[in-house]
Every structure is written in C-alpha cells, then in structure tokens.
Write a structure and sequence with these properties.
mainly alpha
Amino acid sequence: MMTNGTTSLLDDVGRLVLRVTIGGLMLFHGIHKIFHGVEGIAGMLERQFLAYGVFVGEVVAPILMIVGFFARPAAAVLAFTMVVAIYLAHSQDLLKLGEQGQWAVELPILFLFGSIAIALYGAGRFSVSKGRGLLH
C-alpha cells in the first residue's frame, strides 16, 4: 500500500468518497431550499430569520466538504445542522419504522454520523487543502 507518511492512498480515497457522498447528497437539500424557500423550516423556529441559517448548513458546508477546504469545521456545521433537523423535524420518528422497514430517521442519522466522521478524519490529500492542517 502506498503511503504519504501517516495515511495510505486508500485512506485518502475513502475520505474523498465520504466527503463527496455526504456533501453532495446534502447539497441537493440545500439547492431545493434555494429554489423553493425555507418556509417549512421557518414555521418550526421561533425566529424565522434563523431558517436562513440552513443555507450555511446545507449549501456552504457541503461545498466546503466536497472540495476539502475547511472540511472539518464544515462537517461540524453540517453535524449541528442535522442535530437541529432531527430535533425539529424528525424527533417524533425516532422510534418508528418506514414503509419498507427502514428506520424512519435513517437518512438524517446517516448525514449526522457521516459528517462526524469527516470532522474526525479530515479531508485527506485529495482536497484543496491536500490534507494539511488540523482544520482541513
């Protein structure tokens, strides 16, 4: 296995796949909100202007994760976004199963723990930051 000191080539490819998957799929949610608005979220919050914070968590953070620039903090922002989303929109589903037998909150949980993994592992060398620094 090829290494660049502390990580192998496969480790860095795995980080790239994780970043592109979690960031890319979350970006679709953000793009939907760009075109259709945040009214659904605004109704769940005491202050409607807070709903626009979703653009940071669902557009800016995923883009940063995908390119691997400040990937760790971006992933932490996405993890926080998912905790809030689970609390506000999915808390009633925590003990439920979906129509096909899946856990009703499995997608938000996947985004949550995928972003935690990125925050812990970092971007790797296949990124804008080239895997240098604690924040990347």
